[in-house]
Amino acid sequence: MRNVALKILTGDTAKYLGLIFGIMFATLLMSQQVSIFMGLLGRTASQITDVTEADIWVMDPMVDYIDQIKSLPDRDLMRVRSVNGVKWAVPFFKGMGMAQTVDGTMQNVIILGVDDSTLIGQPPQMLYGKWEDLKEPNSIIIDQDGFKYLWPNEALSIGKTLEINERRITIVGICAASPPFVTNPVVYTRYSIAKQLAKSEGNQMSFILVKAQEEINDLTLAKEIENRTHLQALTKKDFQHRSIQYYMEHTGIPINFGITVLLGFIIGAAITGQTFYLFIIENIKQFGALKAIGVTNGQILRMVLLQASVVASIGFSLGIGLCALFFELTSNVPALRGFTLDWQVVLGTAFAVLVIVFLASIFSIRRVFTIDPAIVFRG
């Protein structure tokens, strides 16, 4: 019976390939768009992720996400340091500036200022140079994608100079920072230099990074800091979730990607359902012949589900393979770097494909169940 089902399936090559194409297209579109969506959401908290040393972020109570800055007075740093359970607390600056290269290229840059003495706040990996080089006068470290934005036709190298807000700065290192949500270069410098680059008056401390003592729970310490200072203190994980949630609720990203994924599902279901239905109709006499020799509806249902499973397996495998190939080929493109095909996306897409195939099979099999075996003997 299995061989008969497969022979009927592959008898019409065009429709057989059409079924595979429908599943492949739906798989590719859904898995690619969901992966890009998840990658974009991850970028909204990339600068939080890169600060590996800190357990807790302290900020103004009105701050909702990483890019919403309300500066703190310098005295808040001492207040946080005085809380029991704090191992250390250091200032962290985040702001924007305009960078200009010697040849006139201009680009908005994200300025991150790390603690002058400890340099806490840097991403985990250096590609060229050392973090200690930031202690040199007027020095910065730039992320690798930012370097390519400013000098697209040159290899990564240190020693170049540029102006940030009309101040001459030297690049002493290149790091592998996580891509930000907005594709601007990310530059790291000392906290004192960052304040000078910002050219703003008054308070300039964006966040306070805190490390808890070994025996202290992060969440407990965060609550204690809030009670003692009346500032907002969030664990690293909570601040990441807060930033992602903000973009989920206040931007059109979920709606836009959701519509695209839904269209992929509908188009895949429509193509597969219509093609599978036509496939069943054109082979109605073969199914009638099987019923005439005593094949039951249950056996025919298993045959159709086998055919659908074969088509789904091939189409899904091709679609996931193409999606993985897409992210592999674009892994060095700065705007798409860091986007990957996660196993959760593969499983979710597989479930969606099963739903598509199930709906197409149920829609088509109803005609087979109602046919009269005598159709075989009609002209």
Unreliable segments (pLDDT under 50, ≥5 consecutive)? none
Rounded to the nearest angstrom, the radius of gyration is 29 Å
- Count of individual helical segments: 12
Helices and strands: which structural class? Answer: alpha+beta
Assign a percent range to the helix content: 40-55%
Q: How much is the average pLDDT?
A: 85
Number of E-type strands: 10
Element order: H for helix, E for strand: HHHEHEEEEHEEEHEHEHHHHH
What is the end-to-end distance?
26 Å
Major sheet: arrangement of strands: 2-3-8-5-7-6
Indicate how many domains the architecture comprises. Answer: 2
Q: So what's the overall shape?
A: elongated
- Largest sheet descriptor: 6 strands, mixed, barrel
Strand content: 15-25%
Descriptive overview:
The chain is of the alpha+beta class and 379 residues long. The protein has two domains: 2-43 and 252-377, no CATH class; 92-206, no CATH class. 51% of the residues lie in helices and 17% in strands. The protein is built from twelve helices and ten strands. It has a six-stranded mixed barrel. A hairpin with a 4-residue loop joins β2 (86-101) and β3. α2 (13-43) packs across α11 (297-329). It is elongated. The chain starts with a helix and ends in a 10-residue tail after the last helix.
